[in-house]
Amino acid sequence: MRMTILPWESGAESEMQTPFLAGEFRVFHDGRRSLQLHAKDLNAVDEICVEPRLIYSIKERGSRSVGSMDTLFFAHRGSSHKYSENTRAAYLQAIDEGADGIECDVHLSKDGIVVCHHDPTVDRTSDSSGLVAGYTLAEMKAMDFTGVVPSIVPAEYGTENEQLLSLGELFALIEERGKPIGLAIEIKHPSPYGHLLEKGVLQVLAAHGFDPQTGTAGSQGQIAVTLMSFEPNSLRYLARTVSTALLCQLMTEVNPDYVQQLIDSGDVGRAGVYEVLYRSVPEGIELINAGGAGIVGSGVAWTRANEHLVRRWLEQGLKARIWTVDRPADAQFLVDLGVGELTSNRPAELRKELELS
């Protein structure tokens, strides 16, 4: 099977600024689906056989120069500075403004549906209250999730009660737009359903053509899926069937005294969340060093404080997707460090700011 490589024809924000090296792609002949990839300055290239690794296959090449499209910008819970997080509007805005990837969070609903939502409760994000696990998908769709970022949602981005999505509906949304894009799925723990959450995610992925070795999904293989969690045991479970190259260990620093304070105050739910965050650093480092995750997912502050460790991982060939990067100074530091993927609430603006710096 052959792919025709064409010059990029639209959207300067998505141009690749470095030469294309065909020799860096691996040949395949097994008849898998083809993709049309776009890059700049490829007039001398006719047709080549490549492994369909989508965005990553091209954009990882070249130096880490500012503005170069080897730096990927992921929209944190969608373009969440413009529209409320993890909503249809935020996801569509991210796609339409040219984000290289979307980051979403997932929980299981009462009726076993994988839903895109960050918190274990709907208290902060909706006009209701209670655990996500305590509601059916239909019940949550009756809630208003547009209040986190009060803004007028365009009609084409859906009505008030169309904003909460299941993971399957997010895939359908991406399919409708038809653009190659990354999808970083964060699996939230602790979950009252345990690893049924991971099973549910894998079932949704299987229904959308997910290849657990390459990460490709979608009707045209145009979606590049990776899976993330602060909970190392989640990644260990996923590694039974999914390539560790697609697994991202999230990490952040948490004061253990704060966890104990939550326990002492009776806030067991929040204590459980912060206990996972606290363990994410020591257990996450151990997991990464053991080869259990191919992507480093640390926060900006932790990355700055542990630059030597992140640099070593990058030198060893691991990838890094750092969050939440909204300041140009942080983005510049990370690009200079060699980080290839930045997760931001404002990906389009951040990209432009780096290109102008």
Which short descriptors sum up this protein?
disordered N terminus; eight-stranded parallel beta barrel; TIM Barrel; 357 residues; 2 domains; two-stranded antiparallel ribbon; GP_PDE_dom; alpha/beta
Helices and strands in order, then pairings?
Elements: E1 3-4, E2 6-7, E3 38-39, E4 47-48, H1 54-59, E5 72-76, H2 88-96, E6 101-108, E7 114-116, H3 137-141, H4 167-177, E8 181-187, H5 196-207, E9 216-217, E10 223-229, H6 232-238, E11 247-251, H7 256-264, H8 268-289, E12 295-298, H9 300-305, H10 307-315, E13 319-322, H11 328-337, E14 341-344, H12 347-356
Parallel strand pairs: 2-3, 5-6, 5-14, 6-8, 8-10, 10-11, 11-12, 12-13, 13-14
Antiparallel strand pairs: 1-4, 6-7, 9-10
Helix pairs in contact: 2-4, 7-8
What would you say this structure looks like, in words?
InterPro entries: GP_PDE_dom, PLC-like_Pdiesterase_TIM-brl. It holds the Pfam family GDPD. This is Glycerophosphoryl diester phosphodiesterase. It comes from Glutamicibacter mysorens. A hairpin with a 5-residue loop joins strand 9 and strand 10. 32% of the residues lie in helices and 16% in strands. The N and C termini lie far apart (41 Å). The relative contact order is 0.12. It folds into two domains: 52 residues, no CATH class; 285 residues, Phosphatidylinositol (PI) phosphodiesterase (TIM Barrel, Alpha-Beta Barrel), CATH 3.20.20.190. By secondary structure, it is of the alpha/beta class. Helix 2 packs parallel to helix 4 and helix 7 packs antiparallel against helix 8. The N terminus is likely disordered. The strands form three sheets. Strands 5-6-8-10-11-12-13-14 form an eight-stranded parallel barrel, surrounded by six helices. It contains twelve helices and 14 strands. The chain is globular, with a radius of gyration of 20 Å.
